[in-house]
Structures are given as structure tokens and as C-alpha cells.
């Protein structure tokens, strides 16, 4: 299957993408992975992206699109893929459609992970990371540490990232609504969108998504 996964920050896209890709035996292709791979390998697109990032500027759509197209041409994506974080706007969605048309394939579904805005704010603003190892993540409400501000695993100090504050989250949500959310209407016109309620346990959300995909087969 060829799937695009969309949803606001904090909707659990990365987690769901990993589970869905494993269940469907297709590669999970995230924008973050594309950037890291191209930059670490020193590709021409990676060099261009790094120059923009080092200058504190947004990477242009054509660079991101080029990376995505190169990745989709790799053998493991021939029988399907799950895109996470791309396309990020209608221009990128149109470019993806044009690319897929040239390769004579089409998308099977666009999964829209739906989470109430206040839940997004609560999920992200409540996150706390360990300064010793950012991989130890807690939440003030959903997964609190035994001792406030102290990592259960290593005893390190827990902190809130600057882009996880409520004010920063609401700015990210505004950007999502203005730039990314319009692709949902774009794909609805093609009859591809399946809205997945993303509240509840991870396994429950995965099951809803898999059930929706089965209806597409």
C-alpha cells in the first residue's frame, strides 16, 4: 500500500507510522530521516538543505521534494511506502501526485490522525526530558516520574524543551492549520482521506487505522 500519514504535532504520527509500516511490511519514510540521510551521506540535496538550515532558513520545497522522490525510487519502496511528514503543504502534495503519475502508481489512502487541539497542547506541554539522555521521556500527567523533576532511570534532571511550552505549541499548531491542514481537503477531493480518531491507547489507534486501510483494499 502507498499511504500518506498526516495530523497535528503531538498526534502520535511517528509512533503510528512505525507500527503501521511494520504491520504492512512497507518502509516508513519520514521527512526527518530524509534530511538526516542526505546530510550524513553528503548528497547534493543534503548539502543544499544543510546550507539553508545552517543559515537559519527554511529548506525550499524543491529540495525536500527531490529528497522524497529519490527515496521513493529505491527498491524497497517499489511495493509500497508510508510517508510521514511529507507532503507538508499543497504544493508538495501536487508534486508527489505528479511524480507518482510518472511512475504509474497512485496513493491508496491518506490517514488523518485527529486529536482535539487542547489534547495536543496537553500532550506536548506536559513532556519532560532527561538532560543526561533525551531518550528518557516523562509526562507530568500521563507518565510522571517518581520524584518531581528527577529521571527514574538515571537520576538526571528533567526539563521542558523550549519548543514544548504551551505558547510554542500553539504557534506550531497555527502553522499546521495554515500550511499542512489544507492538504487534507486536497486529498478529500480525490476520495483518499480516512479520518482516524487518535485518542486512546497506541494499539487501539493502530487497530482503527488498520481497519480503515482494509476498507481501502
Task: Explain what the structure shows.
With 217 residues, the protein is an alpha/beta fold. The protein is built from nine helices and eight strands. It has helices at residues 13-24, 31-41, 44-54, 61-72, 90-102, 117-125, 166-180, 182-188, 202-216; strands at 2-6, 28-30, 81-84, 109-114, 127-130, 137-139, 158-159, 193-197. The strands form two sheets. The protein has a five-stranded parallel β-sheet with strand order 2-3-1-4-8, sandwiched between helices. A three-stranded antiparallel β-sheet has the order 6-5-7. Strand 5 and strand 6 form a beta hairpin. Helix 1 (13-24) crosses helix 9, helix 4 runs parallel beside helix 5 and helix 6 (117-125) packs across helix 7 (166-180). The longest helix is centred in the last third of the chain and has 15 residues, at 166-180. It is globular. The termini are close together. The model has no long low-confidence stretch (mean pLDDT 94).
Q: Which terms would index this structure?
A:
217 residues, alpha/beta, five-stranded parallel β-sheet
